[in-house]
Amino acid sequence: MSRAFNFSAGPAALPESVLLQAQSEMLEWGKARASVMEISHRGKDFEALAAEAEKDLRDLLDVPSNYKVLFLQGGATLHFAQLAMNFARPDQTADYIVTGAWSEKAVKEAKPLTQVRIAASDEAGKFTAIPPRASWDLDPNAAYVHIVANETIHGVEFHTVPDVGAVPLISDLSSTILSQPIDVSRFGMIYAGAQKNIGPSGLVVVIVREDLLERCPKSIPKILNYAEHAANGSMLNTPPTFSWYLAGLVFKWAKAQGGLKALGEINRQKQELLYGYIDGSGFYRNPVEISARSWMNVPFTLPSESLDSVFLKESEAAGLLALKGHRAVGGMRASIYNALPLQGVQALVDFMRDFASRNG
Amino acid sequence: MSRAFNFSAGPAALPESVLLQAQSEMLEWGKARASVMEISHRGKDFEALAAEAEKDLRDLLDVPSNYKVLFLQGGATLHFAQLAMNFARPDQTADYIVTGAWSEKAVKEAKPLTQVRIAASDEAGKFTAIPPRASWDLDPNAAYVHIVANETIHGVEFHTVPDVGAVPLISDLSSTILSQPIDVSRFGMIYAGAQKNIGPSGLVVVIVREDLLERCPKSIPKILNYAEHAANGSMLNTPPTFSWYLAGLVFKWAKAQGGLKALGEINRQKQELLYGYIDGSGFYRNPVEISARSWMNVPFTLPSESLDSVFLKESEAAGLLALKGHRAVGGMRASIYNALPLQGVQALVDFMRDFASRNG
Questions:
Q1: Is A27 within 8 Å of chain B by CB?
Q2: Is A108 within 8 Å of chain B by CB?
Q3: CA separation (Å) from B30 to A1, A243, B34, B35?
Q4: Could you state, in chain order, the average pLDDT of each consecutive group of 10 residues for chain A (360 residues)?
């Protein structure tokens, strides 16, 4: 056996050099005489690691100095609830833009906590487009506007940051963070589960503008209060130390690739190659409006569902893993995050072309 | 450099054989052609891993069939809040037994959510004993009674399960789970952060009696609702897969040691050796009442604080790591969890004896 091209939607492929380094220092990290998993998060060694990971992430995203960077837990899903708990009063409205399964889930988790308004939705279009900004019914008094920057299941992505005026824009970037440069200053808060472009599942990165932290109510448990986490350097309780360490290695790797500009250029090429082939194939089909197509998750269907199982079996045998689409949309899905190289997409396209020629 | 005896209070030492296995399969796990970190939690390979880890934990703890075993996130601290949110109505009382820093923290996190009653506390005794059961002022209508089975900072442990009648007993077992056999049927719920006897930080094991899940309110976000987690096999959202995997390896290791009876016997010997030496030394001192002394965390002081830094420097040079006590109590602390072998305690005692002879 050997490592294959891994198109998993998440937990997703990690850079091989990162895994090799983690492997080499699994039993002894630095001068610790122990694994990085076995040392206190309050010791100077781990504190240095944590600070360096934060600095590298700030460098990569060019995070303004009036933003806090937090390393938390619970997956993006916990933060669907937690952000509503922190930034909206129960009697206040919060505006949600619904562009797929994850923004629907964000709505569901926030509903017990605030007055959710659906300011725009592409549900009627089966989540194949971003509703045009001009159509959004925003409340100027809303606590915030929430978007999911990239929908992993439907393969729909915001390619520009919408202007929502003075209301803070909050975005789940789980599946697109670090894939290309982004202007953090346009957001009140961004957050991302780690398991696509950052590291192992179980870690969530939150980047929040300091003035928003003043809204965090003192009446909620500290462990759910972002201001408390910020005041305690993400160490209000024991953080997921191994995940934080591995995220730090991924940030170093991303810097070594040339940062987000360089990664963004590779990602642009990857998606162009794949969508370009799909559109011209006359065999495969992606339903998403071209302007809203995700650079990270490419769902596609075959001419007949009866071919799905054959495609999956043969692609796996060809060293192309985890191409099964989500049950909500069916067909296939290629997730092509940062750690999946251009050669991986080329290998997929070559396979798809061959498969089409044999089954067309 | 080489691995040393690691007395860290948490994240704590892991069995070396577990780290070696994780190292060997870091890039390719089983037949996955990817790291276990890189595969979907919803694929059959990870589902099998997850089921096996649960089965092994059930075997080790002899968990009755009417209990659910959940693998969650957030540290015990999130569950301080979450259990109050799930099992007590805001207008209901909940009884807390306060035996140290962690039970104090459990109180603080629950206070915004329910009517916390301190049914017993050893605060006046500076947390050196378990308040006698007969002195507890329990409310027979309380939602639950909460204890922290072992206090890592003060080194105080419950060595019997208190009888609290028909009210469900809920216990934080973070620092004592798997250290000896326990009768799970005596509890409504037990929960434990992984980073002492289970695995890496970021994972929390929750074992909860099914009838309690009927209390979980539908009015809270799903991600904070134990019944939802139970109904979804702990996969309501992406779980911390690598931590779950590593916990599974630790469970296999614990079984190979002979299970909790055998581990309990080793742990009994370890603490007897250390407390026995301390008490007879005429140099070191542990303030905890003998019946309440922790088997896992042994705080001790030297005759003069001025010796602390010398002790720490010399012990580290002797290959005995992380002996600094918590700032709340000062002095030293030896955490002697499952993965710290009897030889480690013997090496510590040998060092302590030598240090005392040179500084007495």
A1: yes
A2: yes
A3: 9, 21, 9, 9
A4: 91 98 97 97 97 98 98 98 95 96 98 97 98 98 98 98 98 98 98 98 98 97 98 97 98 98 98 98 98 98 97 98 94 98 98 96
Q: Is A38 in Cβ contact with B12 (below 8 Å)?
A: yes
Nearest one of A82, A75, A124 to A102, comparing CA atoms? A75
Query: In Å, what is the CA distance from A192 to each residue of A71, A96, A195, A334, B255?
Result: 10, 17, 9, 20, 37
CB A326 within 8 A of CB A182: no
Do the Cβ atoms of B131 and B109 come closer than 8 Å?
Answer: no
Domains of chain A (ranges, CATH numbers): 16-256 (3.40.640.10), 258-359 (3.90.1150.10)
Instruction: Kindly list the residues from chain B whose CB atom is less than 8 angstroms away from the CB atom of residue A240.
Output: 73, 200-202, 240, 243
Residues in chain A with CB shorter than 8 Å from the CB of B239 are 201-202
Q: What is the DSSP string of A216-283?
A: S-TTS-GGG-HHHHHHTTT-SS---HHHHHHHHHHHHHHHHTTHHHHHHHHHHHHHHHHHHHHHHHSS
Say which amino acid occupies B343: Q
DSSP assignment of A162-199 equals: PP-TTSPEEEE-TTTTTSS---GGG-SEEEEESTTTTS
